[in-house]
Amino acid sequence: MIKRHPEPVLWMLFSAGGVVSAMLLPVLVLLFGVAFPLGLLDPPDYAQLSALLANPLTGLVMFSLCALSLFHWAHRFRHTLYDGLQIKHLNEVIAIVSYGAAVAGSTLAAYLLWQLS
Amino acid sequence: MDQNHAYTAYHPRWLRPHVSTYWWLEKPAYLAFILREGSCMFVAWFTVYLLLLLRAIQQGQAAYEAFLAWSAGPVVVLVNIVSFAFLIFHAITFFQAAPQAMVVHVGHRRLPARVLLAAHYAAWAAASIVVFWLLTGA
């Protein structure tokens, strides 16, 4: 039997997450992280925001953004610790913790968006 | 290889030079590499921040307002300003690598790298404008 390696799938998730996070996170940080907190722009009011998130398309985009960004992080984090800091003896523990966190975060995102839909 | 080989006084030294844990501080290119890889920490941070925001919205108006008040704290704003810089760096470096990872053919001709790069930047601009418009109603 051919042993199937998860690496290509994990790389695809890393790559997709890299693109989605690059397209959407900068503007979201600029708004929710800087402009709204500093009062440069008015944040959307509660009704407006919950209506926006109740839209299935917004929900799908938000879920993809959260899940893929977390898998992007998990993959890059694991490889940087391995190559950069040469933490090789903990490789399996780091893999389990990082991909596990990505799965947990994605599940939470799905649950919250489901509640908001 | 024989696992029970006898000890010899002139055991060969393996050609495996020791690499310092801080090798990435030795050259600017190495530092750029580790900063690029490190940008993933800010991707993770802001995703957690978004999950906190979603949870607040799910809990109701009071929780949403509490989130907005918390997000205006100086430490949170500072972390987000640094995150913004890293996310821009992440976007630029990721798009830079995309034409090497993506091979797109139109007919029998491979799409040149600069066309793919331009398409990524155009999509980035369009996505940012849509999100900005949706959230500010401008």
Structure characteristics:
heterodimer, A: 117 residues, mainly alpha, 3 helical TM bundles of succinate and fumarate reductases, 4 helices, elongated, B: 138 residues, 2 domains, two-stranded antiparallel ribbon, 2 strands
Give the overall silhouette of chain A.
elongated
Measured distance between first and last alpha carbons of chain B = 71 Å
CATH architecture of the largest domain in chain B: Up-down Bundle
What oligomeric state do these chains adopt?
heterodimer
List unreliable stretches of 5+ residues of chain A. Answer: none
CATH superfamily grouping of the largest domain in chain B: Fumarate reductase/succinate dehydrogenase, transmembrane subunit
**Distance from first to last alpha carbon of chain A:** 44 Å
The parts of chain B where pLDDT drops under 50 for at least 5 residues are none
Q: Give me the CATH architecture of chain A, please.
A: Up-down Bundle
- Here the CATH topology of the largest domain in chain B equals 3 helical TM bundles of succinate and fumarate reductases
Structure summary:
The complex is a heterodimer of chains A (117) and B (138). Chain A has 117 residues and is mainly alpha-helical.
Describe the protein in words.
The complex is a heterodimer of chains A (117) and B (138). Chain A has 117 residues and is mainly α. In chain A, 79% of the residues lie in helices and 0% in strands. Chain A has one domain: 3 helical TM bundles of succinate and fumarate reductases, CATH 1.20.1300.10. Chain B is mainly α and 138 residues long. Chain B has two domains: 19-89, 3 helical TM bundles of succinate and fumarate reductases, CATH 1.20.1300.10; 102-138, no CATH class. Chain B contains four helices and two strands. A two-stranded antiparallel sheet of chain B has the order 1-2. Chains A and B meet through helix 1, helix 2, helix 3 and helix 4 of A and helix 1, helix 2, helix 3 and helix 4 of B.
